[in-house]
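Posting for a labmate who doesn't have an account.
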Amino acid sequence: MIGGGWMGLHAARRYAELNPDSSVVLVDAGRIGDNASGRCMGFVIDLAHNPRKQDFVEDIRGNKEELFVNLDGIAYIRSAVEEQGVDCDWDPQGKYHSAATPHGVEDLKRFSEALDKLGQNYSWVEREEIRSITGSNHYIRALHHPGTILLQPAKYLKDAVRRLPSNVVVHENTPITSVQFGAPKHVCETPTGTLRASRVIICASGYLTRFGFFENRAIPLYTFASMTRQLTENELSRVGSKAAYGLIPANSFGTTVRRTIDNRLFLRNVYAYATDFKTTRQDVMKARREQQIAFDRRWPELSPIGFEASWGGLLTLAQNGGMVFGELDRNVYGAAFCNGTGVARGAAFGKAIAEMASLRTSPVIDILKTRASPSKPYPKPVTAMGVRIVTAFRFRQAGAEV
């Protein structure tokens, strides 16, 4: 198994469960949990919303399939928590889709239309109630949708690694420097040794393209977040009546917010094209300034405390929204390009690719096999410029939702 994020970790677990007599090796170039997977917002989302997608409300079949796949991922994560005792601050309270502007409220209304067609439960949260929950005057209306889980992602990943089946060996800080796919064994070179395997599963996000598959198909983006120090008792009185919550912006380019159970505020916004899958400190500091503005808008009396930490995380997209899933070469399997909502999708995709590699079938596999493969984007300079123009426009368009 190559890659120890949400896909790779669950692929390793599932493959080991299905093949108890096999020796499974999971390698990751860094420390598992100390990466984009571990530094995400920790929303395990059952149904993502994208009301600006033209066919979002009408695409009932697509939304039902998305929900089915994500619920499979959530169930697999839940089984690790309930059956294996993985510690992750599991909180099944759902999420608040929150609007700060009239056009944000219209976005939420379109989302509610899709929920109605899917037979989903939800409730509207009016201004006074969302102010009570958050302590902020910024939001004018919200929609609460149950089903999403809030958790501490790094905590989950680190503890789940320790609880993998006994036939899994984990090697962190072990980048694959070269690979030769072939029979009878695939040969992977690392700085400290050679791995030989009869079957390889690659769950390395956009880095899958570095293994010779779907080359130049990835559109790598970074998104950024900042977190406060732990708030004092006096400060906590200003951030609402609820001890923890998660707010999804009505506009997808708005600001996502979490209040964590260890009494911090956590804000995420800003996207940037990641040349060669990398970002810079300058990009992080630029995003931090935007997040400070978002903090000022929501809690002006509290925001002067600033942030304790800021960072970025890689998100891999495809121009056509396609994904990698399936057998890439003989006994070489891969899953990549989650296009967002990476926790639930990642667990589901990883579990499914392990089942496919074990010659199993499932409804999730059947769904994922129908997904389009990543299309080839425009040349990198054009794509980079296009991403910068579109993200800047959408960011400005979101206005006070940011």
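Reply:
Got it, the structure tokens are right above this. The domain at 1-89+152-216+323-371 is CATH 3.50.50.60 (FAD/NAD(P)-binding domain).
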